[in-house]
Amino acid sequence: MTTNPLDTVLRTHPFLHDLDPAHLRILVPCAEDRIFASGDFLCRVGEPAEQFFLLREGRVALEVHVPKREGVRFQTLHEGEVLGWSWLFPPYRWHLDARALKPVRAVALDARRVRRECERDHKFGYQILKRFAQVMGHRLKGTRLQIVELGHGGLKTEHRGDP
Prior knowledge:
4-stranded antiparallel β-sheet, 34% helix, globular
């Protein structure tokens, strides 16, 4: 029996590092190694959110559109972080753009398959949702800090929240 090299990647990624081995085995067939060149978009606002990403290398800018301007970066993600929770909630469409600032290597996970597995195995689904809830909390905290900074005289164009 051969092992999938992504098995080790998933097991050691900070987002999944302490996930039950049986739950990790659920994710392996949903995973695909992906590489993005600098400037490539991992996702675009309004497009179907058909996957989410575990970042292995590189940096990704999270951007929002502002009228009469290009995308405004509000946060930068780094190695070891996760990108995307739009796949969890209908209508399953991206709410932001994510662009590689330098070459990015990531594991893309098939959102439909993961959602089906979450429905099939509620313990697995609960573990995945708990992890994403933590990520959302950290990102919202970072956004809140930016708003406070804006109120004190300046907007920083990005904030790296807690990993």
